[in-house]
Structures are given as structure tokens and as C-alpha cells.
Amino acid sequence: MSARIGVITFPGTLDDVDAARAVRLAGAEAVSLWHADADIKGVDAVIVPGGFSYGDYLRCGAIARFAPVMGEVVRAAGQGLPVLGICNGFQVLCEAGLLPGALTRNEGLHFICRDEWLQVEATNTAWTSRYEPGAQILIPLKSGEGRYQASAQVLDELEGEGRVVFRYAGDNPNGSQRGIAGISSANGRVVGLMPHPEHATEALTGPSDDGLGMFFSVIDSLINA
Amino acid sequence: MARVVVEVMPKAEILDPQGQAVVGALPRLGFAGISDVRQGKRFELEVDDSVSDAELEQIAEALLANTVIEDWKVVRVS
């Protein structure tokens, strides 16, 4: 009986297909979740994938956060459901209040599309347990609004509580404060990151298969639950 | 019916690279003396008389602005 991991599609979502593929590569069943249905079909975890939901209108993720499916995701996350927000998904989770802070326009204004070395700093989350602490992984970044910002108080809280999950290991590509590439909720079940692990799952199509660890990790967390 | 304007601006402590791009462009157009530009959004709402100020504030705070990074102001203009 394999784990069932939901992948949401909003109008304008691009990377749901690759996220579903990554789930299958890791050995779980990918379950499509439709934005307009307040139904997450009893899945064991949810991925909010990348893309341009609602055309990034108003603000990235600002409209998606009110989609019927997100009401169910927020409710289930409150009960411990693991949730992974990738790129636009990270933006949606911040707008929805599941993660603190906000993602804003890249500091240099350019859309950045390149492979980035990330350091995995927190391995006690539902999505990173398969990594060694301090592991450096090569994951594609492709975003125009990837600059993570939060108040100094929130940043200190994230650092102090070990909730900075990924940090850019080399140069900071987008001006994210403290070089933050991804963070977690207080209970470590909800994680958001700007780079795309679903695009680093096979040597043929990505710079590495380092992204697979996130999908293996969440499956582990379900087996051991 | 009334017209309501909601102005949304990035908070003072937020880096605004788009505003900075405008600052950079002005000298290229021959304009001097502008030391800073910050770029925000203006929303114009047509509302009927049943919509209260409290509701407009909720609209501004919950949807039109992201209060982590933006400030908002609601003005009834007519």
C-alpha cells in the first residue's frame, strides 16, 4: 500500500506534472488535486507546485491562497499533514499564513533560471530527513519573485528554532534575507522552498537527482508515523 | 454607489528594486534631483452604500495588501 501524495493544480500552475513524476519516482502514488474542489482526497501529504497561478495577478500566490482546495490544506496542515510548497507553492503557503514572511521581486530584477547549490540545514523536517545535515545539493532555481523577506524578529526566530531548511550555498541569487532558500513551520511538517527539487530527479533531465531526497523523506515520515 | 481608492505601498523597510529601477532610469531621460522612488499599487473600487468602512479595511488587509511587506490606506473619494 503505497503512500498517496496530492499535487495541486491551480489555473496557471506549471510544475504539477513534474512534481507528480517525482512522487512516482520516489515510489508513492501521485494524486491530482483540483483548485476548485474543497477536497484533498484523504492524501497523506500535499505538494503545492511551481508556476504562475492566476498569472501572479495581485501578488504571487495571493489569489491561489483563497482557492477552495487551500482551505482543506490549511485545515489538514493544522492537524499535522505534511505540505511542501515549491516556488509559487512557497509563495502560496506564505500568503496563506502556513509559513511566515513573504517572497518579493528578485533584488536584481532579473528572472533567475539556473542551477543553485543549496545547503540543507534542517534535516528534522518531514521533507528533509533523508539528507545529511549540511549536505550540499544542486537544484534548479527559476523565479522572478524569489527574494525571501521577513522582519528581523521572524528571521531570528527561524534561525533560533532551526527552521531555516535550505540556504543558498554560493552567491545569493535573489537577495533573500540571510540567504534563505527554504523554511519550515514550527512543527517541521510544512516546508517551502524557492528552488525546484522536482527538476532534480534524474541525470537525463536535471543537474542532479538531489531533489529526490525530499520525496523519499516524506514517504519515510508516513511509514514511521 | 461610492468610489473607494485603496493605496498599497511597500513598507519603508522593504527593499523595492522596481522603484530603484525607476530611479536609475530618470537620469537617463535627463531628469535630475529625484533621490528615491517607491512603487506601489492603486485599487479603485465601486462600492454600494451597504459596504462599511470596516469591510473595506478587511478587504485591504486580507486581499489587496500583504501586510507582511505592504501598508495600505483606504480613501472614500466620492
TrEMBL record, chain B:
EC number(s) given by UniProt: 6.3.5.3
Protein name as annotated: Phosphoribosylformylglycinamidine synthase subunit PurS
GO molecular function terms listed in the Swiss-Prot or TrEMBL record: phosphoribosylformylglycinamidine synthase activity
Keyword ATP-binding among record annotations: yes
Keywords associated with the record: ATP-binding, Cytoplasm, Ligase, Nucleotide-binding, Purine biosynthesis
Domain of life: Bacteria
InterPro entries registered for this protein in UniProt: PurS (IPR003850)
Complex and partners: Part of the FGAM synthase complex composed of 1 PurL, 1 PurQ and 2 PurS subunits.
Family as reported in the entry's similarity comment: Belongs to the PurS family.
Database matches in NCBIfam families: phosphoribosylformylglycinamidine synthase subunit PurS, PRK05974.1
Record's subcellular location: Cytoplasm
Enzymatic reactions: N(2)-formyl-N(1)-(5-phospho-beta-D-ribosyl)glycinamide + L-glutamine + ATP + H2O = 2-formamido-N(1)-(5-O-phospho-beta-D-ribosyl)acetamidine + L-glutamate + ADP + phosphate + H(+)
Catalytic class of the enzyme: ligase
Pathway info: Purine metabolism; IMP biosynthesis via de novo pathway; 5-amino-1-(5-phospho-D-ribosyl)imidazole from N(2)-formyl-N(1)-(5-phospho-D-ribosyl)glycinamide: step 1/2
Function: Part of the phosphoribosylformylglycinamidine synthase complex involved in the purines biosynthetic pathway. Catalyzes the ATP-dependent conversion of formylglycinamide ribonucleotide (FGAR) and glutamine to yield formylglycinamidine ribonucleotide (FGAM) and glutamate. The FGAM synthase complex is composed of three subunits. PurQ produces an ammonia molecule by converting glutamine to glutamate. PurL transfers the ammonia molecule to FGAR to form FGAM in an ATP-dependent manner.
